[in-house]
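Notes to self, Glycosyltransferase RgtA/B/C/D-like domain-containing protein:
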Amino acid sequence: MKLIKLKLSSSKKTSSIFSGTLWAALIFLLLLLALMNEYILPRYFFYDSRTISSFIKLGTGFASGDSFSSTAAFYTLFGVERNSIPFSLVSFFTVFLTFNFYLKKSKARSLDFFEFTLIAFLAVLSMAYMTALSKELIVLLFIAPFIFFSKRGLPGLIAWSFIALAYAFFFRTYWFLLIAMFWGIYIVFRFSRSVAVLIAAIPIALFALAVFFVFYLGVDLDSYRTLVNDVRIESGDEDARTMILPWVQGGGVLTGWLNSFITWITLMVPLPLFLLFSPYHMLISVLISILFYKFWKAALLEFHSKKSPEKAACFSLVISFTALQCIFEPDYGSYVKHLSPFFPMIVYAILKDTSASASKGTLKSLQNLVKASPRTNRTIEYR
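result:
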């Protein structure tokens, strides 16, 4: 992992030694977690892993829209088995190198202690979720090169979209909706100057989907989540504490839209998770809230400056993904797990252009913007 200097002390020597020690400790912890995850973590982290393993034993092949069957077939191609040390090492290096790549591309010169803590938190979650048999590791494999494609403009993003569409066909059909929403948000990011348009884009998209679900599919927008959670409640699932329950009772376009929109907000500010008053869930809630605060702060800066098409693409993809998850995610734990392949991208989007030189560039851009403003506006300001 790129060892970015931590701003921990006024002494350069002390700061460098402490930085190196913290990075080394983090890398050791991540490797230990990758190799010993099923011995360290609670069993609910590995429900998918056990299911995928059972599908591997059945010898299932790729099947359209069947995520477990296709995931098992993918791992079978490489002879992967559950609790395999070689697989744990390969998945460790895949996650590790992806974080390293995105940190390097961010060109961040230093991190404060809180930023380091946030990166460590995301890296630990990534190792927990993606070093066992999982669907998320497959997502990471085509999320990792996203920045390469985005740097090549529209042709690159179109090429990446076809890869994502292939994934949607075999693994998760809702990715068809995700790609459509990604392009809509990306167009807003690149060509709109109105923050109101950006803020309204997701609620409008969700309302359009609510209409489509009710009048074309004959179900409410949040029906999938409600169905899954009803089964879990009836079965007395002991690990269902983090379920996302309906905010508004009833059915129809408006109710489905409201439940999904409110859920989208709570995916970024997971107050219901905090109110479980479990130290683990409270910590997750606080860190996810701060992560998205920093994410949206950086996103709005990019929206105004229009400096980096690749950052705009990253912001658009993450925003679109969270918007789709508010429709389909049954609980907050699953949401964090499904978000984990995007963690390196989120870190990049937050840290990119935060160096001293970048700050000067941003200041200069703002000064130029003021100079370019109409004279009448400047007169009013000085009054």
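- Residues 355-383 have pLDDT under 50 and may be disordered.
- The longest helix spans residues 12-40.
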